[in-house]
Amino acid sequence: MLSKVAVVKPEDVVVPGDAIKDPYLLEFLDLKEQYSDSDLEATLIRRLVDFLLELGEGFPS
Predict the structure, then answer these.
(1) Do 10 and 24 touch, CB atoms closer than 8 A?
(2) pTM for the full model?
(3) Which of 1, 11, 13, 47 has the maximum number of C-beta atoms within 10 A of its C-beta?
């Protein structure tokens, strides 16, 4: 049996804004102010493909 019960203090509560301290910097993607997850995914994949193509044929596949 539990002999002690922990009391949750207001400062111990985690809010979503505190869980992610560092914001994502996505300006390099040139997305609109409002974007969907699929837009973000497609843009990230396109940028990654462009980057890998810039590495050339010497990059292991």
Answers:
(1) no
(2) 0.55
(3) 47
